[in-house]
Amino acid sequence: MNDQATQLESTSTGEALVQVKDLNKHFPLSGNSLLGRGKGAVRAVDGVSFELKKGETLGLVGESGCGKSTLARSLLQLLRPSSGSVRFRGVELTEISNRKLRPIRRDMQMIFQDPYTSLNPRKRVGQIIGEPLRIHGLAEGREIERRVREKLDQVGLSGSYYDRYPHEFSGGQRQRIGIARALAPEPSLIVADEPVSALDVSIQGQIVNLMADLQRELELTYLFVAHDLGVVRQVSDRIAVMYLGKIVEIGPAELVYSKPIHPYTASLLAAVPIPDPRTNAQRERRPLEGDVPSPSDPPSGCRFHTRCPYATEVCEQQEPALIDYGQGHFAACHHPLGRPDPAGE
To answer: Where would I find the beta strands (DSSP E) of the chain?
Structure first.
């Protein structure tokens, strides 16, 4: 375990359901690849460490291409990590076979981003939601139908939808069906990969509220992946901000929102609309310049320095470590906003 992972673990409180330590997921590039010149690797996830405590929601945010979806899939072993550790209830998932993973997967479910492609159009709703029950041997016959109708009711849909096909539903209803499928085997962990980004704004709030209600009712633990900090704020206990394969800031949601330390976090927050037009016009802007560098050839030092308005020579030469600024609020920046004194210094 590296020092950064040790520090993050030592400051956590409560029972850790998931422990991720120095996780890497690199996709090799061949010399003939259309995605890169010569050999190398896309470093989608590069040395990520965090804990997810039982019953909490950790929001994972960042721009498209930062590696957050790859991290989510690596956590569930849908993508096998290149290196590092993922422990679920104390079991090291990276070292066990797919056969041994199967019973564990019952307790780790996923809600997918696109409700239009994540549901099999050739299967009825009852079959879709009942499939995890059959796969894990949790029910059969009429018991499957009873439990499926129960889950439909739990997500705000009528049991009469049991025999309908996905094309008969709106996007919001389809996402509710996807949530019901994830709930069917009664998991303790749900990874939600941008569950509302494909929905109309008017529907997003309904789905977010539904997920919050289900968490309280069923004592669920969420990893909530999104690119919109405004959405994540509604559901998260803690927030992790990811940039180019690395976590650059992580801490309690209110601290990250009210007192961001990393310039990248501040830039993301500046892009979140404020309902009051006057307040929105008067607030400080920190626009990002330039494009996101390629994850196959990340910048030296701090990966954000090519776009950061505060970058200096040290940012180009030395990679910053995640430092605890108090109350479990960590950031990796040579020039932290507000320049708070790191804890213990």
So the answer is: 16-29, 40-53, 57-61, 83-88, 91-92, 108-111, 189-193, 221-226, 238-243, 246-252, 323-324, 330-331
* pTM for the structure as a whole: 0.88
SS3 338: coil
> For residues 222 and 306, what is the distance between their CA atoms, to the nearest angstrom?
33
Token pair of 117 as six digits: 């492609």
> What does R_g of the chain's alpha carbons equal in angstroms?
21
CB 52 within 8 A of CB 191: no
Average pLDDT over residues 98-124: 93
Q: What single DSSP character describes residue 134?
A: H
Q: Give the Cα separation of 60 and 312 in Å (integer).
A: 28
Q: How would residue 311 be classed by pLDDT, with cut points 50, 70 and 90?
A: very high
Instruction: Lowest mean pLDDT of 37-41, 191-195, 320-324, name the range.
Output: 37-41
Residue 242 β-bridge partners: 247
Residue 3, pLDDT above cutoff 60:
no
Sequence-separated (6 or more) residues with CB below 8 Å from residue 99? none
Helix axes 171-183, 201-218, angle to 10 degrees: 20
Residue 277: pLDDT over 90: no
Alpha helices in the chain (DSSP H): 3-10, 68-75, 98-105, 125-135, 142-154, 171-183, 201-218, 229-235, 253-258, 263-270, 277-282, 313-317
